[in-house]
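Deliverable D5.2: sample structural annotation.
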Amino acid sequence: MVVVMKQGATEADIEQVCSKVRNAGGEAFVSRGTVHTVVGLVGDTARFQAIPFTQLPGVDHVIQIGKPYKMVSRDLHPAATTVKVGPTPVGRDTFTIIAGPCAVESEEQAMICTKAAKAAGATILRGDVYKPRTSPYSFQGLGERGLEILTECRRETGLPIIIEIVDVSQVAHVAEVADCIRIGTRNAQNFELLKEVGLTAKPVMLKRGLAMTIDEWLQAAEYIAQRGNSEIILCERGIRTFEPATRNTLDLAGMAVAQHESHLPVIVDPSHAVGKRHLVGPMALAAVAAGADGVMIDVHHDPETALCDGPQALLPSEMAALGKQIAAVAAALGREMNV
């Protein structure tokens, strides 16, 4: 059950609803959107039925939602949501290119890749400074120095930045620097981390886990929304299957299902899905054609020396060519590119 408050509902109105829920033995989670504030109810639904919510001041209406993901469901919010990352809107009305280095390795490398991404039409910069790696001996990221480098890249180009975090201890500090926090595939069901980013005021990109069903993916997003942060972007990045020809299997049908089930924007990461440079372009274009709200692509000026995921990174010239192709396909489908 979800209680939708009227525009202009006061904090006292919201607290009265929450108090009624707590008195009935339940929990109330408040999510403040741009238009409405929503109170999600957790507990014995039968007890909530006896509460005259619609008679309380500030209450607009009550929605019964049977799905386990209530806040991110289209049942609650039939219209698609647009999430702003800095000045860039991510949603159904436009198509967004997110690009940059998989990992920040140096100031020179990051700046070259950032400028290449922008030149190719990217309006959001990706670049990671904390890297959860399969091997403990692999490059783990530059940490604090990487944050400083990304800040300089944003100052130089104007591109807002998305940064992955891997631990609860990083949330507050990264939130001060990043325009959007990303939860990677390995942490997609790290529920304590999801709760913590749900308490921030920053947009959150949630990647689909290696073996997550769509239902599990949306329930993971619910952990974030339930804590009050409804500014969530979903990212399909391939799932692990029996097929070894590609790094993962890119599930474009799953992307479309997520769009149908949820009001949240859904983008595609073809780089981490396929793991091979020559396949990134075709899968990025397929994502555009399938109706994705954006793509996220790795760029590196010297992939052979990259400290992380070099085989899937596009050269600046390749990224520029792909940017033109993406714009052409988007235009053919009536999608406006973010600029």
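Annotation notes: The chain has eleven helices and 15 strands. The chain has a mean pLDDT of 93.
The annotation will be released with the project's public dataset once the embargo ends.
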